Amino acid sequence: MAAGDLVGRSFFITGASSGIGRSMAEALVARGASVVLAARSEERTQPVLEGIRRQYPSSYAQWLQIDLADLASVRRAAGEYLGSGKPIDVLVNNAGIAGTNGLSPQGFDLTYATNHIGPFLLTNLLLPRIREASQGRVVNVASSAHFTAKQMDWSMLDRRTAPRRSRFPDYALTKLMNVLHAKELARRLTGTAVTTYAVHPGAVATNIWRALPGPVAWFIKLFMLSNEQGAVPLLYCATAPELASQTGRYYDRSREIPPSPLAADDNLARELWIRTEAIVGS
């Protein structure tokens, strides 16, 4: 890693207004990359952009409004970016949430909509642009929590009429979906210049825990890594030259390890893709 080694490379990062996404964006700009900070709130993203521009006046960084839980917002944001004609070398599906109690505009559980359904659609929509890159990459922020998911509950992808409180098993299941998504996407991109990665960044004190009660969130963050530490494995998978020939793998921090048996199931990965594709209608 050196200043200027990523000049000419463009990174599209979801959830980049805070946490790991923000730290990753700042680290990439320091290395000369162009960065798109895709996030819901302009108010929260603007100070990040201003900080980047103060420190790196010649850098390119932009905000793109997106709410991953809202499929209409995902389509609008992707259409807007594709319409600009700007490149994407690397897509980082970083945004996520846990402990929600709500429904998406399309009636999906908010945790599943934000962590899996929205990122799946965004990836599909942006993929043609990523495939134009000389060495495109898709990085999914997963979690070691996926090891605790012991079976796939397809009913969690159904539309609902009433919200329910999502708990840790729901978060774990969405993280399993992130690993399976990267695996199946890699299979479908065989023979192309695009590679995929699912990464556990470690237990990081990010804004993903914002839906939890304040005292609970404060307490668990005492035992977690900093955002800067959490960004390191994502930067590795997004930029390391030695990973250019690796795809569909799972990384714990910056080390490839076998995922859970469920996450290694080819048939499960295909079925998740088919079911999610039917949901988003692409």
Please give a structural write-up.
This protein is an alpha/beta fold. It has a single domain, classed as NAD(P)-binding Rossmann-like Domain (Rossmann fold, 3-Layer(aba) Sandwich). The protein has eight helices and eight strands; from the N terminus they run βαβαβαβαβαβααββα. The chain has helices at 19-30, 42-55, 71-84, 110-130, 168-188, 214-221, 227-239, 266-280; strands at 10-14, 34-39, 61-65, 90-93, 136-141, 194-200, 249-252, 255-256. An eight-stranded mixed β-sheet has the order 3-2-1-4-5-6-7-8, with helices on both faces. β5 (136-141), α5 and β6 (194-200) form a beta-alpha-beta unit. It starts with 9 loop residues before the first strand and ends with a helix. The mean pLDDT is 91.
Strand content: 5-15%
Order of helices and strands: EHEHEHEHEHEHHEEH
CATH homologous superfamily? NAD(P)-binding Rossmann-like Domain
Please give the CATH architecture: 3-Layer(aba) Sandwich
Q: How many DSSP-defined strands?
A: 8
Describe this protein with a few key phrases.
eight-stranded mixed beta sheet, 8 helices, 14% strand, 282 residues, 8 strands
